[in-house]
């Protein structure tokens, strides 16, 4: 008779086995559209195979109550997270639609994806920069050398983000025992990191953790280090894991292709409208001729940091060498998402616009570009592109300044959302968004690093 009442998850130490005799036909079987969340009916759905639902099954009780809908401060204050992360968007732009694999000649995307991981964690208010005691007197050009710290240790629900967060937390606050190993992180039963000071076994003295800079973290996550003791920080199979995540979200599908003597799993595009909407957002931002940001260049209303996310998408696509693929337009099953390709002069103007956006947002505060604060080589690339296309020096400048103003307004909304927001210093500086600027500075030097 127990099978007639459906299946239920057994909680460890929660329910006893005596309730099996009272399971009769008087209690109706659970619905397919509801998840077992105990007596708390305010929890979110634990995964669904239906359209519009998450295809990854999970137990919402394993996550903190506010982790399922991160808002401005990670607490769900009226803003939701987008369907795709920035890393997934960059990977989707680089994938060939029908073949389902990346270009073998693209050496930049792996390094750029690691930077996007830090950007995504910063936008979710998980990591931030350590407050600089120099304040406004800090040396120019040292933004990428600022130290990073974990300000919120809750899980995000994304595997790669959580793995990176564990390594950063284990480096900053090593677990008891004296071993400084990213693979020996201790995760508490309540979904948070166990503090060495609160552990009964913490008799080894003070913590010997360290905080690393932005550029160091991007190098370590990419495996770009000669220190054999830091090899364990490298994230393995990032592109394949991101592709599998897109398969779970219904954007890609998995196929096997034969390459000479071996078979390789490929991931062609299954939902072409998703990639077409990405290309539409990028082109709308790069071809705008007014100071106001077009709504088609932004994520839907109510999305967390919709302006800043669009800026990071364009800058990351530009540095990852996947922006060129968006210039050819997109063909979708829906005629409303089909995008015509750009002409030669329009392509050059779009690349110049992307370089200007990167130059404005890779410094802090945003828009404070000058001869010292500009990204290395950005002014030379911009001027040479303008000479090649015959365009004036002020073409599109008004649109870039309008984008900077919108991003600053969005930053002001975050700062005024209330107290308790992670990553906001005592003087009102947003250390999370300053970290985003530091990552963009690292990515702007990508051509000279590789």
UniProtKB/TrEMBL annotation:
Q: Does the keyword Mitochondrion apply?
A: no
Segments of skewed composition (Low complexity): 19-39, 384-393
Name the membrane topology term: Peripheral membrane protein
Query: What processes in GO biological process is this protein linked to?
Result: Golgi organization; Golgi to plasma membrane protein transport; Golgi vesicle budding; retrograde vesicle-mediated transport, Golgi to endoplasmic reticulum
Q: Would the keyword Zinc turn up in this protein's UniProt record?
A: no
Single annotated GO MF: phosphatidylinositol-4-phosphate binding
**Gene3D superfamilies assigned to the protein according to its UniProt record, in alphabetical order:** yeast vps74-n-term truncation variant domain like
Q: Name one GO cellular component term.
A: trans-Golgi network
Q: Where in the cell is it found?
A: Golgi apparatus membrane
Annotated keywords? Golgi apparatus, Lipid-binding, Membrane
Q: Where is this region: Disordered?
A: 1-77, 374-394
Q: Which InterPro entries match?
A: GPP34-like, GPP34-like_sf
Q: Which family does it belong to?
A: Belongs to the GOLPH3/VPS74 family.
Q: What is this protein called?
A: Golgi phosphoprotein 3-domain-containing protein
Classification of source organism: Eukaryota, Fungi, Dikarya, Basidiomycota, Agaricomycotina
């Amino acid at each position: 008779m127990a099978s007639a009442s459906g299946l239920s998850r057994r909680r460890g130490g929660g329910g006893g086995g005596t309730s099996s005799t009272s399971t009769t036909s008087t209690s109706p079987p659970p619905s397919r559209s509801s998840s077992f969340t105990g007596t708390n009916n305010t929890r979110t759905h634990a995964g669904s195979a239906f359209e519009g639902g998450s295809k990854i099954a999970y137990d919402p009780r394993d996550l903190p109550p506010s982790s399922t809908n991160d808002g401005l401060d990670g607490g769900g204050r009226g803003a939701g997270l987008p369907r795709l992360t920035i890393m997934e968007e960059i990977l989707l732009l680089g994938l060939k639609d029908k073949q389902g694999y990346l270009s073998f000649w693209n050496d930049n995307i792996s390094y750029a994806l690691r930077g996007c991981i830090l950007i995504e964690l910063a936008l979710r208010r998980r990591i931030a920069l350590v407050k600089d005691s120099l304040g406004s007197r800090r040396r120019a050009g040292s933004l990428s050398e600022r130290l990073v710290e974990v300000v919120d240790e809750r899980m995000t629900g994304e595997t790669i983000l959580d793995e990176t967060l564990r390594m950063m937390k284990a480096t900053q606050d090593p677990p008891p025992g004296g071993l400084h190993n990213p693979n020996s992180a201790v995760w508490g039963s309540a979904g948070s990191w166990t503090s060495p000071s609160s552990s009964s076994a913490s008799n080894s003295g003070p913590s010997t953790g360290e905080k690393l800079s932005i550029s160091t973290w991007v190098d370590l996550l990419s495996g770009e280090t000669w220190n054999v003791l830091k090899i364990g920080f490298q994230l393995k199979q990032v592109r394949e894991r991101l592709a599998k995540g897109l398969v779970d979200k219904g954007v890609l599908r998995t196929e096997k292709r034969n390459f000479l003597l071996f078979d390789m799993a490929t991931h062609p595009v299954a939902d072409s409208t998703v990639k077409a909407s990405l290309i539409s957002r990028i082109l709308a931002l790069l071809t705008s001729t007014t100071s106001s940001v077009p709504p088609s260049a932004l994520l839907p209303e109510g999305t967390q940091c919709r302006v800043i996310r669009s800026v990071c998408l364009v800058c990351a696509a530009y540095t990852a060498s996947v922006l060129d693929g968006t210039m050819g337009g997109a063909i979708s099953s829906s005629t409303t998402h089909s995008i015509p390709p750009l002409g030669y002069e329009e392509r050059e103007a779009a690349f110049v616009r992307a370089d200007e956006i990167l130059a404005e947002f890779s410094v802090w505060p945003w828009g404070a570009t000058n001869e010292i604060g500009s990204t290395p080589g950005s002014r030379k690339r911009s001027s040479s592109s303008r000479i090649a296309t015959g365009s004036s020096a002020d073409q599109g400048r008004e649109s870039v300044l309008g984008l900077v103003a919108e991003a600053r307004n969005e930053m002001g909304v975050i700062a005024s959302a209330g107290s308790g927001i992670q990553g906001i210093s005592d003087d009102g500086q947003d250390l999370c968004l300053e970290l985003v600027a530091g990552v963009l500075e690292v990515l702007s030097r990508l051509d000279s690093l590789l």
